[in-house]
Design brief:
Helix content: 40-55%
Number of helices: 4
Shape: elongated
Strand order of the largest sheet: 1-2
Largest sheet: 2 strands, antiparallel
Structural class: alpha+beta
């Protein structure tokens, strides 16, 4: 049989977590959003440039989380062009156009930067 006993409360942990939850500031997220849009735009394969120019970001804040989403508004006949460039697509005559992994390499350095900045904020609290 395993048992454990705990005395006291979690007030120090709770206080710490309250400070940490606001570590990543909204201004930082806007900066990261602009950087992400710039990175995605410059990495997007260009024919007309419409897809590259159609990147934008949204920030959603709830009680428990903050989400930054990168989106692309270039949709043709219901098909998101940025996605078919990334993953490939079939053609009308039965062929296939292979995708180009341009999103992941473009956005990975930004995600690492966000994680590092958040870690710095959390550890200095």
């Amino acid at each position: 049989m395993i048992s454990f006993r705990q005395k006291g409360d979690f007030s120090k942990l709770t206080g710490y977590l309250e400070k940490v939850k606001d570590a990543v500031k909204l201004g930082d997220l806007n900066r990261f959003g602009r950087e992400g849009v710039k990175a995605l735009s410059s990495a997007t394969p260009k024919d007309t440039g419409l897809t590259a120019d159609s990147w934008y970001y949204e920030i959603e804040r709830t009680n428990n989380s903050v989400t930054i989403s990168f989106k692309n508004s270039n949709i043709h006949n219901g098909v998101p062009i940025a996605i078919i460039l990334q993953y490939g697509h079939g053609t009308r005559n039965g062929g296939y156009v292979e995708g180009i992994d341009y999103i992941n390499p473009a956005i990975k350095p930004l995600f690492e930067k966000i994680a590092n900045d958040a870690w710095e904020e959390v550890t200095k609290v």
